[in-house]
Batch of 2 targets.
Target 1
Amino acid sequence: MSSRETRHGVAGSLRRKEALAGYLLILPWIIGFLWFLVYPIGLSIYASFTRWTLIRPPAVWVGLKNYTTLLKDVDTWWAMGVTLRYMGMTLIPFLILALLLALLLNQKVRGMNVFRTIFYMPSIISGVAVAILWASLLNPEIGAINQVLRFLGVDNPPRWLMSSKWALPSVALMSLWGIGGSSIIYLSGLQNIPSELYDAATVDGANVFQKFFSVTLPMLSSTLFFLFITGMIGTFQIFTPAYILGGASAYGSSRALLFYVLHLYMEGFRKGKLGYASALAWLLVILSAIMVSVIYRRTEQYVYYEAGAEKP
């Protein structure tokens, strides 16, 4: 055997040992991925085709019966309607207000980092604590919001969570508490816009509004698109405020707060219909995937990507 073949054999052996060491190092992650993600997903797919209850196991295969049942279920489509109305109330206002806040936080003012921290902190507070806080603020009798409205001369302020008319707008109002997180993402996008573009616009005689619509918005379009997609997915997943304010409290009798995921929870864990709840979950996944894919197909029309940037 020549020395060259010997070197190739040694190099091949070292590569195999390195590959084996690499696989051993990532083995805990692979096990966790398979056990905590792949297995539950596969089990939920299987469960959606069964009549699986907490009271009478084991699961009984029923085929598409769960899916045909949920398509006829009035509560399912009511819950979907509540979720979509909530999306309409919050998604666009949330994006606009977060952008306006980011523009303010992007100013070069002494102590701005303190303000950025203050506005970001509410987005990391526990959702349960926030829901309880807003339940107190929106109390129709002693809540701070109605006290202020009465002070301003409003004789009959809304009953907020206790009113079927105002319950959903109340939760929508509560969601604006977390715009600081989105503002920080906007802020990172604003600070990545080359200053040369603004200098060129100034030379061309552009005013503040022209710079915003001709430079800032196009350069922020990818960030805006990211926040729009994540915000849309997030509204489909609303559970904590729905559960605290509409499912586990005195407001539970109001169907105005029957969000889709809360409906899924009620079917699966209060009624014990695990198979039916799994079918509800996969219906939500399918509808969300369709909406996101339709939006993605049209990104080139309204999202600007810098030269060399990879499109989604």
Target 2
Amino acid sequence: MKLKIGYFYSNLLNLYGDTGNVEILNFRSKKRSIDTEIIEINADTKLTSDLMSEINIIVMGGGPDSGQKQMYEDLLHNKGSYLRDYIESGGVGIFICGSYQLLGHYYKSADGKMLDGLGIFDLYTRSFGVKRPRCIGNMVCELNPDILNDSVFKSIYEGYDSPKCDFASLVGFENHSGRTYLGVQMKPFAKVIKGHGNNSEDGTEGVHYKNSIGTYMHGPIFSRNPHLADYLISKALKTDSLDRLDDSLIYRAHSFSKTLPQ
């Protein structure tokens, strides 16, 4: 098996250490003797269908406004159609904060300006500026039941004998002014226990669509939730069997993270 990671806009979208997600996928795969290859796809990359067909997991992070502006035109006009085909055909991916927003229909700023998205996810994002507080702080969430009941996800934790491993939960950090609202048919990635999530109103966090995930969790998310990393590795490699790694220290930190103030 070989895990080919498509890392989109690595030079622009790494505001809160989201590159760490790629490093963790790489590390956890190699610890299991799974070959990996990181394919960096930036604005100057000539993307083709052949190149996309080689990728079995996509990572796309969040970035400052300046970074997102630099990649926006390229995403919208050059690479968006490839992402759409990949996601709609069941490709595995994780899209964080700004990239998550851009995969929706639009982003509306506080001054009324509209930024068109790719419309792959049925959602939209609005910023209310100073009228509403920024969504920032530690998060605790519970995974979508569709993920928890996935046979691939169950294979990760069934038989794991440590009581400290709460595989149903996610912990992380968020920092965003935009508030995202899902379409009626869209399912969230998780339910908010502590924090703001999509909009600080309806208790939803992120989106889970086919085999792709959008989320506001920075951190990087995989460093504090290795079960999520392993789930996506398994989905990408189309296997329900991964060698177990010793994550006892990580899950002690995971449990402690739940006690942190928001």
